[in-house]
């Protein structure tokens, strides 16, 4: 930062820039005569990329030299990374999300600092140049890629970047997103069934729920007499549970339907206290 005019304390004000390769003893110096100057460029074609230098800046005027600033370390321009990340892995989290992780490039294989990573993701039927790009910052070595198509094959690749540019890409890895959830449509007397379904039922007066899973078009439930039952049906798959159907109320069945009479009625009611109910199912895809 330049020194304000009221602090220059005389004419002929300027700056002295001193610098040396990090770890050496002798300082190189140059004079910047303008009091408004705020930068100095040292050019050396043989200077390796990302070379550390110690730098300090002093001041002078017609009366002599003033004090120097504290020493700081600066670096020459860096090159983009020259090695790709390794051990790239990808796994499906849901029908729309995948997680990708990787290991940093091997140390000392690039001439600069890695500022982050760029993840590219493209569907199998898309061109790589149109890939979705996600950038991480710092030493983060995993990220989530969202808003993908369900049950689709994707390719993912990772590369490091810094201020000079982006390095080479890792080998692409493949991952298939999970199947999307199915949406329940109806309960009917006859239809076809494609996904796996869950039949959830409970007493109307209880909170605990029993579950039967099936991939058939019908299911039998054995329910006691004299109890109201609430039934719901919903599909499920690797992508998760789908939405439930509307609640179906099965009213209690009167003892009048129990077989037997006279002294044997109580025994008949006990033996016939369970009724079998057949439910037919249908579902439709959310796609």
Task: Give an overview in words.
The protein has one helix spanning 265-271, and strands spanning 14-21, 28-32, 52-61, 64-68, 72-75, 86-92, 98-103, 116-123, 132-135, 142-145, 153-162, 165-166, 173-176, 183-186, 196-203, 210-214, 218-224, 229-237, 240-241, 248-250, 274-280, 282-284. It has 287 residues and is an all-beta fold. The chain folds into three domains: 5-75, Sandwich (Immunoglobulin-like), CATH 2.60.40; 86-177, Immunoglobulins (Immunoglobulin-like, Sandwich), CATH 2.60.40; 191-254 and 264-286, Immunoglobulins (Immunoglobulin-like), CATH 2.60.40. Strands 1, 2, 3, 4 and 5 form a five-stranded antiparallel sheet that branches. Strands 8, 9, 11, 12 and 13 form a five-stranded antiparallel sheet that branches. The two termini are 61 Å apart. Mean pLDDT is 79; it is low at 183-194, 255-275 and 283-287. It comes from Scopus umbretta.
